[in-house]
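User: Could you check the structure of this?
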Amino acid sequence: MRYLLLSILVYQLSTTLFGMTADDPLISAVDSLDATPLGPVGAEYRGGPGKASFFGLRTERESILDNTASGRDKVSARVHSDFAVGGIYLDAGQGAGLNLSFGKYFHKAETSLDSRVNFDDRIEQITKQYAEARLQIELLAELRASVDVRVAEHRFSILGDPFLSNLEAIKYRSSFVGYRGSLAYDTKTTILSYMYSPPLHGKALVEGEEKLVTDPGFLMLSLAHRLANKWGLGARVKRMLDEPDELSQGTTASDDTTNISLYGLDPDQYFRPWQLSLLGVAFPVTPKSTISVTLGQDIRRVNTTDYFVIQRADLRAVKGLRVVSYLWRLGLSMDYGNFQAGLGVGGYSREQDFTNNDRTTTYKASAQEMLGSLSLKL
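Assistant: Sure, the predicted structure tokens are below.
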């Protein structure tokens, strides 16, 4: 489902994909940090010459759901994910422009029960593809609007029960269609923007059964300001719009008795992104290079609407609990006129203990990220 929160600076790449501009280093710091699939593209982009861009991100995460304090199992998952997106911006003149983007996300999770002897890792894979077309228009000298048409396809190969073999994976796909809109007020030194991205709705066919599915949306408010010394400062608050869908009902294996979680075995399925808050600063170190530093707070809600029990390793937490974590991003971008490039690193960690009916569960997760970007003026 989620995507995750991701990454940091890509200074010029943003002009095509993430709504940032070359003369506003702060927007670069904030936008690229929050690069969910296809990025939060919005009306804050000021238009200009055509541009083609590419963005790549690799994330390595380890998540643990430890029930050993209650005499139960410990689930650990090592997750490798890669996200790449390419796009092209075409200037239509008179303050109008068209942006076309395509992105692909690959997720591989290796899950084990650490308290079991001779228990081989269970492997699950998810592939997500996104395509988006954005039309941007200038309403007034300081006011712009954009509208996106979005389509997506998700493919799953999951087990949903640790005692099924890797040869018994459940495979299904889902498709979505939707839209996104944004407004930006731009005084040349300050940009205030608002974005509304409702959840995508679609259908999935699971073992011959059709299910209604959703891909979460969000509301987002961003503020960026450029100082006289060309430093950039800014902030962003993003609230997720998460609608439950029929995947939470799960399914059964071919024996019609083994319960299958359609979210898979990754412990992070229980922790749904709810709110992301970011503060960033970007500053030039040479005429051609800029450094960006961003700090953020990620709040996730505990969601146990999928009542699937991983034998003795499930999470049975009181609804409404939240997990708070903090993340960081550091990036370097380089501008060579018609060609720009960026590199960055980041990471986060979170930990929370849950107690319910004298049963204690400890959740831990940590991740490291690396990214790169290229951008070329047409």
